[in-house]
Amino acid sequence: MKKAGSVEDFEMEPVSVPTSPAGEISDDLNEEDGRKNSCLKSKVVAKSRNILVEIRGKVLALKKLVEDKWLQPYGCISKSDTTRTYQVWPGNNVFFFHGRLVCGPDPRGLLLTTVSILVSSWNFAMYNGDDLSQFPRLVVPFSVVLTIIVLVSLIIASTTDPGIIPRNDSASVDEIGPSNGTRRKRVIVNGVELKLKYCRVCKITRPPRSCHCAICDNCVEKFDHHCPWIGQCIALRNYRFYLMFVVSALMYFIYIFAFSCWRIRRRMLRTGTGLLGMLKHFPDTLALVSFSFAAIWFLGGLVVFHGYLISINQTSYENFRHCYLDSKNPFDKGIFSNIKDILCRPSPSSRVDFRAEAMPST
Ligand SMILES: [Zn+2]
Ligand SMILES: [Zn+2]
How much is the pTM? Predict the structure, then answer.
């Protein structure tokens, strides 16, 4: 598969940020270090890309095997001569159910997240259930309901098109501009001038707040970040499901942490053993408490951070790049309007119909 872009193609133009002054004093040693660093960086990028291509190839081979061996013989799917857009899509995404589900290229993070949640839930239901007899019988069933909510939001966030922008494969040289592809357009949004950068991979001028994800190899609208734990870009169309996943996972881990702590305390009082004794007799519950504790801190930090970002209407990408350090954020409409804008506005439909018949390339 062709990979036409260089590393610079994957960087979004910082919005309304003056560039830092060039011409810093540098000696030969610094130049040598700089060369070594850039060489190392390009090697790491090339290596990561090779790994991703290899993983994607294996996932596609597995998918084809499942379709050929099990789905087609039993009539679950039919063979078709029509080539669909998802079959020839040049990005790194992996598609399931004939282009209905759009996933990122690396499923390892998603698998790890799913297994961690399932193992925690199983551990809680198996070992803590016996000690919770003095609580209403709904404690364990409620943990199962929470687990289902967490997993459903995780699956929706990881399989929804995040807001992929269609490529412009028919762009002429005139549209592309200079050979270095740095032609910029400017737009005014709420009185603030924003610079838009041309993406040489997708051959489009990126809309405001969009960015080319180097992992998925697509330009994505209102790009927030590429989440390794979900294995998918988090952007305009799946941000709410991502938030739902993070908040429900936080509630879930607080829930099992509280009851697991209660179980440990009860056992310690009953048997008179200390923490070391508990480690010997109940390693499962202590492992669950430790894992839940770490998860609560991690997820709690994410919830607070994204709550702050929603209140000021910024994406994680814009925040990390300090895009509005020296200029007003033109998308900030005040806390309540920002919350309404991000959480309550209907999600736009996908800009790419992955199930449509593929147009022959010109
Ligand atoms: Zn792009
Ligand atoms: Zn991505």
Answer: 0.75
